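user: Kindly work through both lines:
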Amino acid sequence: MTGNWIKRAAIAATAIVVIGGFAWALREKPALVDVATVVEAPMHVAVREEGVTRVRDIYTVSAPIAGHLTRIVLEEGDRVEAGETIVASIKPLDPPLLDRRTEAELLAARDAARSGVGIAQIELKRAETDLKLANEDLQRALKLYKPGIISESTLQKATNEVDMRQAAVDAARATIGYRQAELASAEARLLQPDPANPNGNSCCVSLIAPVDGTVLSVLARSEQAVAAGMRISEIGDTSDLEIVVDLLSADAVRIRPGTQATISDWGGDVTLEAVVRRVDPAAFTKVSALGIEEQRVNAVLDLTDPDPRLGHGYRVFAEMAIWECESCLHVPISALFRNGNNWNVFVVENDRMRQTEVSVGRMNDDQAQILDGLAAGDVVVVHPGDTLVDGGRVEIRAR
């Protein structure tokens, strides 16, 4: 009897162990989650975009005439004074080299011009001879007119003949000047660069700095031939900076002139303050890094207290506040998930999850404003996974 009782007890104990093992294996395991507490605190929504500093007024020094630019001695960063500092000098261009055919044509033109001068000189001599004869005739006519031998009309003809011959002499002298000018032009076209003095010794135009400031860039540094209008350098005052930020057009409509902004990530150890001066009325298309075409709008900001370490074309990040509240209910944005068209969260109560629909207001990069559905002090699950279900057990992960 005693052996049977021991045997039955052993079987019962084994059965209890097996049943307990199945129950342990099939029990509901709690989900390990991270949580956050719903708080009522200040909150703000801002637009944060990359921007670039630039000098407010940039002056471009360009060549007013075509010529030979001398080497620029100024460097980027050099200070210049308005009306004093010579930015660049332009010399006249050397005449072009002549090929044999062009040279032969110009030599023929020069010889023709010399012949024209000779012909004009001969014409002048003939006109002077005719004038001399006319004067002699006039003298004889005057002697004959006094005793009445010739009529007054004959005397008048002799006088007119002298005037006509004088005009012919003047015309011949003017023709000589014209022909000599043609000869000088023909000889000038034959001039070639002087190999003994290739750089010349005279300067035609000196370009003076238009404003007080700093050389921002030198666009043409070496000696070279330049055309009229060619850009040589840029000058501006680096103490007068502004910031240009390109925004998505959807964000630009929420920015107004006078909006306060903070400038960060510019390399300094302090955050700078700025104010939006204007938002451009026209947008432009820009392709993002993902290859998506976006409509962007430039916003121009004025620095309240610029840092002297900032210069032209420096990269910065601007954060412009578009909404603020002194005290509002908010949760981490990572606690929200979509259930159809509505926002939901998992609220932790007594180690159980309760799926709750919430009404969301403003959002920023980290927080979401809660209008309805939660109260301050509620504990919500952040980064909820797909395996979580309403009413499931949870275990809060140790931080």
In short: The helical segments are 2-26, 100-145, 152-188, 249-252.
